[in-house]
Amino acid sequence: MFESIESFQQKIYILKQKTNQNLIETLVQYCDEHSMEFDSIIPFVTGKLKSDLREEFEKLHFLPKTRKIPVFLYNNGRS
Fold first, then answer.
1. Per-residue pLDDT tens over the stretch 43-78
2. What is the domain partition of the chain in residue ranges?
3. Contact indicator for 44, 9 with CB cutoff of 8 Å
4. Least packed by Cβ within 10 Å: which of 22, 52, 55, 77?
């Protein structure tokens, strides 16, 4: 199927850039083109892809917005 999670995610981001679609549309297109069930790619939706997908769902109001930790807390007060 895929060599790795990273290779799958790279393919998705490349397809997204080429088609100028959002991630949701890109994932659906990828599954259609490869005659795959959407459930079969779920294990490959991790890390940044999962985070970006969640943001899209929130922007489209498919999911409630989550609270995000302010960026300054990540830096421990350092600039």
1. 999 999 999 998 998 888 877 777 665 555 555 544
2. 9-59
3. yes
4. 77
